[in-house]
């Protein structure tokens, strides 16, 4: 199927309250434009430089989401335009985002990434530390960042029961947090291989790359 057909398929299939983030990392602008012409407006990237190049060249009504691991020293490059940073895992990064957002007279929305997978290669903080960040006076004084939800990546495995239990843990954490922080609205979980399980577990944002744009070639 073509990129535009894939976008149509997801628009039909996903429940109305679930946003589709089209993960376009490594893909050329023509591919993003095909998705754009099919009505897609939210794109996700995992490298700040690549996202910034695409932002400069593509239509300005695209919402850019940074879904990858963020190094503090690169926040300044995306601060003028980024809509949502999915993978905030520590206070130091949040402080830098707040500072750069203020310089740009913006408020930047963020999600806290919780580590739910077994693999060591996946980033994220604990639910306990995430709660400490939300409760901290330091965060509450920040005027230019807003934590609007949580994000997680399940273990890369065929074991659906394991993926489901990891997503259920994140869903439970999210619901717990919402009791004290009702401003948390978004739960970013689910990728090409596991988005159906994620949606069953209450995801409000799925991040889908290869099953829209095809396999990535990193060479
Ligand atoms: C690449 C990436 C995705 C999309 O992965 P696919 O399996 O291609 O759908 C989702 N989330 C993050 C954080 C990614 O880096």
From TrEMBL:
CDD domains given in the database record: PLPDE_III_YBL036c_like
Entry-annotated residues carrying N6-(pyridoxal phosphate)lysine: 25
The UniProt record lists the keyword Glycosyltransferase: no
InterPro entries xref list: Ala_racemase_N, PLP-binding_barrel, PyrdxlP_homeostasis
Domain Alanine racemase N-terminal: 3-216
Keyword Aminoacyl-tRNA synthetase: no
Its biological purpose: Pyridoxal 5'-phosphate (PLP)-binding protein, which is involved in PLP homeostasis.
Protein family: Belongs to the pyridoxal phosphate-binding protein YggS/PROSC family.
Protein name (Swiss-Prot/TrEMBL): Pyridoxal phosphate homeostasis protein
Source organism (scientific name): Christiangramia lutea
Classification of source organism: Bacteria, Pseudomonadati, Bacteroidota, Flavobacteriia, Flavobacteriales
